[in-house]
């Protein structure tokens, strides 16, 4: 649905829309194993500076490319309910080549079975020209989606260059790379998160400002459970657990200004084998581990070359770090 300046383009899809084997594949025309960047077209595609896309209920099966796709210059992208089976990618708002990003996206209840990653993807133009907001009520990704394009380090659910993300009830069961990826999102709140079986990190957080991950269960990952990277400002990790992760349960090796960890349980870490890691702390950083931390907080710490070590906790510091101990006593080292 190309849009021109003559009039706004609005598409309302009421009731149930059923599509099968639609969309232009991104494969090269003469080679099924050669994927060409940006060659595909969505089965339903709002292209250009359109106004509104509203989908009440979508059933998409075996689509050759994104079932519902739009550019970031679209003003409103709403999908109330969707069931996607074996589709190449899923729901997507991508960078705009025709104008600034304006999309306010609202996703209701979505079930994705199989297909390829990412099954949900919302990406703006840049850190200075991002999508205004993305809201997700419930997403369930299962059936072990694949990665035939060889996309590096991308989540089955992916957000990048977005001003605000509010996501709840996101479940990923089987991911060929990361479970959930959040990159350069200014304000992000994720709650009710489940990732079970991912080849890399369960949840990957990179850049941004206020990032919150709460009420989460992450297990059976080929990488870190919750990984914090690339200098986000304030990160809150609250009320969750990781199990059977590789190297670390919660990992922060970046100059995050403030990292708050509360009521987090970490079990069965392979590889390097630490539950929690916080390193390369900036001069104004604080790490808060309240009394509800999962039982790994002795009242005294041996100091070994600017490192604090315990069976499950590692902190490398360059400036004073504040710990809240089990008793509520504050200790500055």
Descriptive tags:
single chain; mainly beta; 5-stranded parallel β-barrel; two-stranded antiparallel ribbon; disordered C terminus
Structural overview:
- With 333 residues, this protein is mainly β.
- Helices cover 0% and strands 59% of the residues.
- The protein has no helices and 23 strands.
- It has strands spanning 10-20, 27-28, 31-35, 44-46, 52-61, 68-71, 76-85, 91-94, 104-113, 120-123, 131-142, 155-175, 178-198, 203-206, 210-221, 226-229, 234-253, 258-279, 286-288, 307-309, 313-316, 322-324, 330-332.
- A five-stranded parallel beta barrel has the order 13-14-16-17-15. It has a two-stranded antiparallel ribbon with strand order 2-3. Strands 22-23 form a two-stranded antiparallel sheet.
- It is globular and about 50 Å long.
Strand content: over 45%
Terminal CA distance = 61 Å
What structural class do helix, strand and pairing data support?
A: mainly beta
The largest sheet has its strands arranged as 13-14-16-17-15
Shape, per Cα inertia axes? globular
How many H/I helical runs? 0
Number of strands: 23
> What are the secondary-structure elements, in order, as H or E?
EEEEEEEEEEEEEEEEEEEEEEE
Largest sheet: 5 strands, parallel, barrel
Set down the secondary structure blueprint.
Layout: E1 10-20, E2 27-28, E3 31-35, E4 44-46, E5 52-61, E6 68-71, E7 76-85, E8 91-94, E9 104-113, E10 120-123, E11 131-142, E12 155-175, E13 178-198, E14 203-206, E15 210-221, E16 226-229, E17 234-253, E18 258-279, E19 286-288, E20 307-309, E21 313-316, E22 322-324, E23 330-332
Parallel strand pairs: 1-5, 4-6, 5-7, 6-8, 7-9, 8-10, 9-11, 10-12, 11-12, 12-13, 13-14, 13-15, 14-16, 15-17, 16-17, 17-18, 18-19, 18-21
Antiparallel strand pairs: 2-3, 20-21, 22-23
């Amino acid at each position: 649905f190309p849009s021109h300046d003559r009039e706004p383009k609005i598409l309302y899809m009421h009731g149930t829309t059923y599509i099968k084997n639609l969309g232009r594949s991104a494969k090269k025309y003469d080679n099924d194993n050669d994927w060409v960047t940006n060659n595909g077209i969505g089965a339903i595609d709002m292209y250009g500076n359109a106004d509104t896309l509203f989908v009440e209920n979508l059933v998409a099966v075996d689509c050759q490319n994104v079932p519902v796709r739009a550019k970031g210059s679209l003003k409103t992208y709403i999908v109330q309910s969707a069931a996607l089976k074996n589709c190449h990618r899923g729901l997507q708002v991508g960078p705009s080549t025709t104008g600034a990003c304006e999309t306010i996206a609202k996703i209701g209840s979505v079930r994705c079975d199989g297909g390829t990653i990412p099954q949900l993807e919302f990406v703006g133009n840049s850190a200075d020209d991002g999508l205004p907001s993305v809201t997700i009520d419930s997403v369930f990704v299962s059936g072990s989606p694949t990665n035939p394009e060889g996309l590096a380090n991308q989540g089955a659910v992916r957000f990048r260059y977005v001003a605000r993300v509010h996501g709840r009830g996101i479940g990923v069961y089987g991911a060929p790379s990361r479970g959930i990826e959040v990159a350069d999102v200014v304000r992000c709140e994720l709650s009710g998160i489940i990732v079970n079986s991912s080849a890399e990190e369960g949840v990957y957080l990179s850049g941004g400002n206020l990032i919150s991950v709460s009420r989460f269960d992450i297990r059976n990952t080929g990488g870190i459970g919750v990984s914090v990277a690339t200098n986000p400002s304030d990160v809150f990790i609250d009320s969750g657990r990781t199990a059977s992760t590789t190297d670390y349960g919660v990992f922060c090796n970046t100059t995050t200004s403030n990292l708050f960890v509360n009521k987090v349980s970490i079990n069965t870490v392979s590889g390097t084998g630490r539950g929690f890691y916080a390193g390369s702390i900036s001069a104004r950083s604080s790490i808060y581990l309240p009394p509800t931390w999962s039982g790994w907080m002795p009242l005294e710490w041996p100091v070994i070359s600017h490192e604090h070590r315990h069976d499950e906790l590692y902190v490398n510091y360059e400036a004073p770090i504040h710990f809240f101990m089990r008793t509520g006593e504050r200790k500055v080292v």
